[in-house]
Amino acid sequence: MALEFFNSINVYAAVSFIVAFVPIIIMLWASKRGFDSSILCMDCQQCVADCPVRSVLKDAYMGPKGIQVYARVGHNEKADELMLFSCTSCMACVNACPRGLNVKHDMDHFRAILASVNLGQMAAHKHLIHMVENFNNTLDEVPLKKPNIHDQKKNIKKMLDGYGKIVGSQMNKEGDRPKGVA
Amino acid sequence: MADDVAVEETPKAPPWKAEKTTAQWGRFLVFEGCVMTRRMVGSRYTARFILDKYGFNYATMDNESCCGSPILRSGGEELANKQRTVNLLNIQKLGFDTIISACPGCGSQLSAGEAKRMGIKVYHYMELVYSLAKNGEILHPDMVDPLPPLTVTAHDPCHLDRGLGVDCNLMHSTIVNALPNQTWVECEEHDRCCGAGGGVRASQKDLSYKIRERKIKKLMRTEADIVLAACPFCELQIDEGLRKTEDCSMRSITPQSYLAMMFKDVDEGVDD
User: Fold this and answer.
1) Contacts of A87 (CB under 8 A, 6+ apart)
2) Which of A103, A125, A167, A181 to probe the B interface (max B CBs under 10 A)?
3) Do A129 and B261 touch (CB under 8 A)?
4) Which H helix or E strand runs over B27?
5) Max CA-CA distance within chain A?
6) What domains can be seen in chain B, in order of their start residue?
7) Contact yes or no for A124/B202 (Cβ under 8 A)
8) End-to-end alpha-carbon separation of chain A, Å?
9) Quick count: other Cβ atoms within 10 Å of Cβ A2?
10) Strand partners of residue B30
């Protein structure tokens, strides 16, 4: 009786259904979470080969491929553990991807998801957000108004003197000239 | 967020090449960004100096908001998108459809999303200089004669190379080769990340320095005198790395400052 059941056409139909539709359901779920491109990743690892952070941190960092995988299945804790916030957003992975997937968008979006559940973000990231929310810039605790260039003459002069020493221009009357400059 | 966006008018453009540059680029808005306006004021000045010298017709925004790029890397996607939208709407309200960005990060951020739909085009400062170099118009009568002989290499900032899609290596080599007495030398892996971006320099200094090590090694192999880095973060990161390297006289500088330092009157008007 049992053998008959397992040999029945219904079981084959059910298994075929699961094999065909589970990936589609995962894809739809990933797409709903805002990771449209990750569902098209074909696991070629080109992005991993070109990632400068991965070349330093090795397996401690998930790399662009990991972003695709964990974003797809929504594994936030694993993404935090494998240092999602270590990406320098250099886009070497976007450049390397033969399918032209926007891994950078997925990384930014995944960071936002992690931040929303208090994972991954470091003090420096929180500080940047605080600065922009309150002062509209990332550096000075002075709201809105951009400094006027005419008020920066003293600092500009100092920097130009520094550049003169670097370039060995007419401004470099004295000081350390670069090699090859008479 | 400020609604009362005012335009800080620029000095009258000198006649040299003004007609040609205006015909090619029209009147545009310069988006200077947080780092340039608040920290790297020398590069801010030299960028404006170059624009004035070649007669570009531009304006700057008085009440500039953060573009949102650092926020996007910090997990604040919603706030970052809001910052971008506010900036683009303010710029559109002022009647500009071309933005020239001083920082590749700002440019890359502003060019994403709704900019295309709004008909706003985003370029980097150096694309203007590149167009002059390509047309053989970079040599200016106010330049020092002869120019100091220098061997020059360059780092391609990620957000300029891959974000704004500029062929940085070709751009840098064209600019340097268009100037007399300058020797261009290409760096290996010129488009590899310096380690400063994505909030990594701010949050994980050790990692950022480790990524930089490889960049510095490649740059040292060129034996150049100076490294051009068209991004304020890259310039800071590379210059710091070079200064920490023993027996290294190579220094990093933004291309606009490199070019400005070739002018006789670069420091006129900034003397105390």
Assistant:
1) A53, A64, A67, A107, B73, B198, B200
2) A167
3) no
4) strand B27-31
5) 100
6) 7-130 (3.40.50.1860), 142-260 (3.40.50.1860)
7) yes
8) 98
9) 6
10) B60, B100
Average pLDDT over residues A42-46: 88
Q: How close does chain A come to B194, measured CA to CA in Å?
A: 9
Residues B91-113, mean pLDDT to the nearest whole number: 93
CA B142 to centroid of chain Cα atoms: 22
pLDDT 10s digits, B181-214: 999 999 999 999 999 988 899 889 999 999 999 9
Determine the pLDDT at residue B185: 97
Residue B77 to residue A108, Cβ atoms within 8 A:
yes
Amino acid, res. A171:
M
CA distance A108 to chain B (A): 6
For residue A95, which phi and psi values (nearest 5 degrees)?
-65, -35
Q: Testing the interface with B: which of A137, A146, A150, A155 to mutate, by most B Cβ within 10 A?
A: A146
Tens digit of pLDDT for each residue in A53-90? 999 999 999 888 888 788 877 888 888 888 889 999 99
Residue keyed to tokens 């304006």: B59
In angstroms, the CA B199 to CA B76 distance is 12
What's the CATH number of domain A33-135, 1.10.1060.10, 1.10.530.10, 3.40.50.12160, 2.40.160.40?
1.10.1060.10
Residues of B in contact with A146 (CB under 8 A): 32, 37, 61-64
- The nearest alpha carbon in chain A to B10 belongs to A149
Give the distance from residue B84's alpha carbon to the nearest chain A alpha carbon, in angstroms.
Answer: 12
pLDDT band at A180 (very low <50, low <70, confident <90, very high): very low
- Of residues B150 and B9, the one with the higher pLDDT is B150
Amino acid found at B98: T
Which of B81, B125, B108 minimizes the C-alpha distance to B257?
Answer: B125
Say if CB B110 and CB B122 are below 8 A apart. yes
Q: A148-173 pLDDT, tens per residue?
A: 888 888 889 889 888 888 888 766 44
The shortest C-alpha distance from B134 to chain A (Å) reads 23
Residue with tokens 């573009």: B67
Contact between residue B127 and residue B98 where contact means Cβ atoms under 8 Å apart: no
Question: Does the interface predicted TM-score (ipTM) exceed 0.95?
Answer: no
Q: Kindly list the domain boundaries of chain A, sorted by start residue.
A: 33-135, 147-182
Work out how many CB contacts closer than 8 A connect A with B.
223
